[in-house]
Amino acid sequence: MTEILVLYYSRYGATAEMARHAARGVAMVPGMEARLRTVPAVSAVCEAVADSIPEAGPPYATPEDLEDCAGLLLGSPTRFGNMAAALKYLIDQTGPQWLAGALAGKPAGVFTSTSSLHGGQETTLVSMMLPLLHHGMLIVGLPYSEAALSHTTSGGTPYGPSHTAGVDSDRPLSADEQGLCTALGRRVAEIALALGEGAPAPRP
Ligand SMILES: Cc1cc2nc3c(=O)[nH]c(=O)nc-3n(C[C@H](O)[C@H](O)[C@H](O)COP(=O)(O)O)c2cc1C
After folding, report:
1. According to the model, what pLDDT value does residue 86 have?
2. Averaged in consecutive runs of 10 residues, what is the pLDDT profile of the chain (204 residues)?
3. Distance from the CA of 190 to the center of ligand 1, in angstroms?
4. Ligand 1 pocket by C-beta < 6 Å: which residues?
5. Residue (of 32, 30, 29) closest to 5 by Cα position
6. DSSP helix/strand/coil, 24
7. Nearest ligand 1 atom, CA 169
8. Ligand 1, residues 87, 88, 115: which to mutate, most atoms within 8 A of Cβ?
9. What's the pTM value of the predicted model, to 2 decimals?
10. Are the beta carbons of 5 and 69 closer than 8 angstroms?
11. Which of 46, 67, 100, 189 reaches 20 to 30 Å from 93, CA-CA?
């Protein structure tokens, strides 16, 4: 089986649920499977470390997970219109993969959850694309042939799936939001499959 890395950070659970729907989309493509990974919260105390195994949910990702997979689905709650530091912290450890071109040519899509409808979904999604472009990844969005993009009254953008959690961050994903997560997962997996093993061989 060829794997797509579904990598996310979630504090209240919404982005985690989006990740599960994206993984479902990956599994719809024959020969493809999702590798679900998360990241620990960043500590304000630099020397404090979390246990290497989380209390619940998928394992923590390492930069090697990015190397291993044929494609990437990256999810983050918004933090002031930007991706969460916990996810950025992992990405900032991928200098060796960047220099080796290890992710170049692999397809990647992004997703986010915000509390308010106009609270920065698109800016967060674009902020997540920037380091992936530096890595040479092929950014995959959502086409308007996905009907939910046109009639959603909450999340869902051509830049990637999004979710509007509400002021108390307790609003479940709507059917449109769920469907767009699954659609992106499927699309990234199909593109990875069409590209063969995903990336061209790293340059020597
Ligand atoms: C420090 C901080 C900053 C946030 N910034 C925004 C923001 O700019 N816009 C917004 O709509 N929601 C913002 N939120 C709300 C979260 O993005 C929102 O609750 C999201 O649904 C959480 O996803 P999760 O359930 O995966 O943790 C912020 C939350 C925190 C804790």
Report:
1. 94
2. 95 96 97 95 70 86 94 98 96 95 97 97 98 98 97 97 96 98 98 76 51
3. 31
4. 10-16, 77-81, 113-116, 119-120, 165, 169
5. 32
6. helix
7. 19
8. 115
9. 0.92
10. yes
11. 189
